[in-house]
Each structure stands twice: as structure tokens, then as C-alpha cells.
């Protein structure tokens, strides 16, 4: 219970460290030591633009993190980055069904992929390969994000993927690029008020392999969630929950508030219920062996946070999440 309250309340980069620690600590909780970047992107110990970053490994999730500084913007060395440059394109796993994040707009010519995550993927290609179009997208469901990385199908997954200790056993993550939290989405007239007793006797949907599904199972087990709540409905893709909600097959959805807000924008009969009850961070996922790529992606995020991130947020997310929300700025480093 101490760990849960901590990870739900801490903010910023310190919150990232605490969230990861809370996954595995059972008694003493210690915040991970993190070096904050100066206003010019430096840390005071390296050159401009080289803010220290923390890449946490599974073995050190609750102990001492391996520290990976972002690689310089012009650095194309390292086996993973060298292979990508030689190949001439980035292979990126994305969503094609999450409105404003990664989706195909039928009103545009060719129905090209668009959204906040798609902008980030193009930025990765632009800064690593010098060509924003040098990217091949692979639409993958929520429950196939990790298999796609481990099999080598993709170099990166940029798909609203929350950094967790469990996932760090299988993949590497970049620094966080977005902050959000779990929230309830339900019909306006449902009588559901949030993640509380109003979910009693309700059918709740979550995506397979999602942090929402894990949290629901934990809370059902320790009786934080009403015992009568039915959490048995899971789907491969998070958007499938919205379809089931519209068909009346479930009563509520639990998912990241950022995704839920976009779904509410698609369907005026549903709305977010209550406040977010966790604090979570999205990261770019990569193969654990691709240390050089992790460092290179971290530098892209440093540069993008200074120029480009805000414009993408304003274009895709400000209408649903607000211009002054906690999500409206890159997570502090």
C-alpha cells in the first residue's frame, strides 16, 4: 500500500525513479539518484546537450540503475545505429487505431498515419538518418509490442508504452517522453464516478498486457477494487474496449487517461470519470542489446523537448488534455 500511494503521487523524473522502485521494493523505498539537466541541456559535467539520463535495467530496478548519457546528436557509431544507417530506414512499431496518437485519418489522401507518436517516430528518423520520411511503420496490437522488439521485427516501439519494471526484464526503454495516469472511461449516464465503489457489479475492459490490466488484477486481489467488479474482459488492442463499450458488452474502460481522453473525443456519449489514480510515463521501447540506440534516442528526446514536442502536443493533444495539464510538458529530466 505504501508503494502504491507513492507511485500515484510523485511527479517529474523523481516520480519515474520512484515508480520503478515501487514495482519491486517491499519495505524500504529509496528514490533513484537522477542528474537534472541545466536549462541549456547540459548537466554541468558534460558538453552542451548531454543531459545524464537513467536507463534502468530489470536487475537494478530496485537497486542501482545503469546510467546511460544521451549520445551526441552527430554520433552515428555503435552497432545498432550503424545497422540502421546502413539499411537507410527506421523500423517502428506503432498503433493505427488510437485517435490523435497513432491513427489513419480517412479524410486525408492515402490515409497516412498521423498523431503524436507518429510525429515522434518521424523525428527519430530525421535526427538519426537525416530524413523524416525514412521510417517504415508496423501496426502492432498492444499485446505484441514486446514480441515485436524481441523478434527484431522493429527497431523501436513508439506506441503509448508505459515504462514498468516487469517490461524492463524484456526490453530497454528510453527516457520518458510523456506523463499520464490510469483513468476510468464510461458512458456519461452510467452513474460511474471514477475508480471507486461505483465500479461494483460493473464489467470493466482493459487491453491484454497493459498496465491497466495489471493494476486491475492487483486491486481485485487486495480488495481495493470492489469484489463484484468483473475484470475478465481483455482485448488485444485498447481501442477494442471502446467498441465493446459502445455495444454494451462492458460498462467501463480502464486505460491511460491520455488515450481515454482521445476516445472521449471520438464518442460524445462517454467521458472520463474521476481523476487519474496513478502516475505513469511513456517511453520508446528498444532491444536490450541496442545500448547505442537507447543513448541516441535519448539525445533525440532532449533535442525534441526543446524544439518540436510542444508543437506536436498543441496540434494533437491540447484539445483533449488541455494546454496547462501535467501532460502538456515533456517530463522533466
Structural class: alpha/beta
Proportion of β residues?
A: 15-25%
Gyration radius (Cα, Å) is 19 Å
Give the overall pLDDT as a whole number: 81
Which stretches of 5+ consecutive residues score pLDDT under 50? 1-60, 62-67
For the sheet with most strands, the description reads: 5 strands, mixed
Give the H and E element order: HHEEHEEEEHEHEHEEEHEHEHEEHHH
What can you see in these coordinates?
The structure is a single chain. The chain is α/β, with parallel strands linked by helices and 333 residues long. It is built from twelve helices and 15 strands. The strands form four sheets. It has a five-stranded mixed β-sheet. Strands 12-11-13-10-14 form a five-stranded mixed β-sheet, sandwiched between helices. α7 links the parallel β11 and β12. α1 packs antiparallel against α2 and α4 crosses α10. It is globular, with a radius of gyration of 19 Å. The chain starts with a helix and ends in a 12-residue tail after the last helix.
